[in-house]
């Protein structure tokens, strides 16, 4: 009798496993990798039926999580409750940004359970964990996002997150939901985040300043609400500093603000040191002969996109000797949300770190697009330039890119146009890594 033929499935491994599980009742086996992260029992942010029965109490004891005591259901258990736990595919999406500075030495232990939960709830975005706290921006249905936030805040050190909510347009929702229903690859480049992907990174800092001694946990500037911001920055004795980078300030900033023209936040301390030194020299020239004149530092009001960079920047200035340091609470985004355009001192659009690229007053979708060659925002006028090539280059990076770099960018763009994701169906996996699953089946004669 002739041996049954070997059928090769060319789908990516995870997609192939999903295909196989759909033909059986066994589902996908849950991961057996252990985690040592300690979770409080009785997580009120989650329905009680999602907590294994032995742990359904109101105790505040801690549980060392292992593969046998995980408080969340496995993937197969989640699929078995699909009718109960899955939300309507037409529910509205929400983008929530959050952060908190806190002493968090065991931050790495949170990564796996948090990633597992986000994947189960189809919450996408990016989260940074570091010894100094947490910083993230996630997208999903409101119920799913609130569950993730509730899980994070169940650790007392992370309770009271500073958070900012941004709306998602009807067009982005339609694109997002359309891809969740029809595509296993991604939600396209115009959606706020890819629906099937969450990145949780471990870093030294949740916002990189490069100065570990600067700690917002110890001291920060005074918070000023958006409603009181105009009065503060309109005072001629106030120096207004934009803490963001040049590619952000280029498309919008507050009227009269000082632009440090930095390319990265790590350059801000050097800029402060240089400016402060110049001020000391200037004041020294005006000192009285007895030398008793003491230089007075100016009143500073600073702002950034959502507030997190100001936490470190204000702490830096206070440590340098500045006495009056204020920061816009909730950042530019909160200001644009709360202050009417007719009363606003904001000029231009605000760059955001997701696929929206920029927003206007009321957090409405802005007009800028993103150059995928250099990640700079580009206007409609920029896209009329001969240096503009979609997915490859723009007027801000054309001259700095070699011919080889441009060709690689063109290849990457072709992959995206063909497969909907960079790297094709295997998402960039090399040929040395397994990318197929062999399945043998009995063929009828």
Report on this model:
The strands form seven sheets. This protein has a five-stranded mixed β-sheet with strand order 7-4-6-5-8. It has 445 residues and is of the alpha/beta class. It is globular, with a radius of gyration of 26 Å. It is built from twelve helices and 19 strands.
Q: Could you say which structural class the secondary elements and strand pairing correspond to? A: alpha/beta
Indicate the overall shape. globular
Tally of DSSP β-strands: 19
Instruction: Supply Rg.
Output: 26 Å
The end-to-end distance, rounded to whole angstroms, is 10 Å
- Give the DSSP E fraction (strand runs of 2 or more residues): 15-25%
Work out the helix count: 12
> What is the helix content?
25-40%
- Main β-sheet description: 5 strands, mixed
Q: Indicate the mean pLDDT.
A: 75
Strand line-up across the major sheet = 7-4-6-5-8
- Spans of at least 5 consecutive residues whose pLDDT stays below 50 are 3-85, 179-192, 284-290, 428-445
């Amino acid at each position: 009798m002739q041996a049954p033929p070997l059928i090769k499935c060319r789908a990516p491994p995870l997609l192939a496993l999903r295909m196989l599980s759909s033909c059986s009742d066994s589902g996908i086996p849950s991961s057996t990798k252990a985690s040592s992260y300690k979770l409080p029992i009785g997580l009120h942010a989650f329905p009680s039926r999602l907590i294994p029965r032995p742990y359904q109490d109101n105790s505040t004891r801690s549980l060392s999580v292992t593969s046998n005591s995980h408080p969340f259901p496995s993937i197969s258990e989640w699929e078995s409750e699909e009718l109960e736990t899955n939300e309507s595919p037409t529910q509205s999406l929400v983008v929530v940004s959050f952060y908190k500075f806190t002493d968090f030495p065991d931050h790495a232990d949170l990564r796996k359970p948090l990633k597992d939960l986000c994947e189960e709830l189809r919450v996408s975005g990016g989260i940074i964990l570091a010894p100094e706290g947490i910083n993230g921006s996630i997208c999903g249905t409101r119920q799913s996002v609130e569950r993730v936030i509730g899980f994070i805040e169940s650790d007392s050190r992370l309770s009271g997150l500073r958070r900012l909510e941004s709306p998602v347009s009807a067009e982005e929702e339609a694109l997002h939901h359309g891809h969740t229903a029809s595509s296993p690859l991604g939600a396209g480049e115009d959606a706020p985040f890819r629906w099937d992907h969450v990145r949780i990174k471990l870093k030294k800092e949740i916002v990189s300043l490069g100065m570990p001694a600067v700690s917002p946990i110890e001291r920060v500037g005074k918070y000023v609400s958006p409603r009181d911001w105009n009065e503060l920055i309109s005072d001629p004795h106030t120096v207004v500093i934009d803490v963001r980078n040049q590619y952000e300030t280029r498309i919008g900033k507050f009227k009269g603000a000082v632009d440090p023209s930095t390319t990265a936040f790590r350059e801000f301390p050097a800029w402060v040191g240089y400016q402060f030194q110049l001020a000391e020299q200037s004041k020294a020239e005006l000192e009285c002969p007895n030398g008793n004149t003491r230089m007075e530092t100016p009143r500073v009001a600073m702002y950034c996109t959502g507030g997190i960079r100001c936490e470190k920047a204000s702490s830096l200035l206070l440590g340098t000797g500045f006495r009056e340091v204020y920061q816009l609470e909730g950042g530019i985004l909160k200001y644009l949300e709360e202050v009417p355009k007719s009363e606003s001192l904001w000029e231009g659009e605000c760059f955001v770190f997701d696929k929206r690229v920029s927003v206007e007053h009321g957090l409405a979708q802005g007009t800028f697009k993103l150059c995928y060659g250099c990640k700079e925002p580009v206007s409609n006028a920029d896209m009329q330039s001969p240096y503009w090539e979609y997915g490859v280059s723009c007027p801000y990076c054309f001259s700095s890119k070699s011919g080889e770099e441009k060709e690689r960018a063109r290849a990457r763009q072709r992959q995206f146009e063909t497969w909907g994701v960079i790297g094709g169906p295997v998402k960039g996996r090399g040929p040395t890594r397994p990318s197929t699953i062999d399945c043998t089946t009995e063929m009828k004669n």
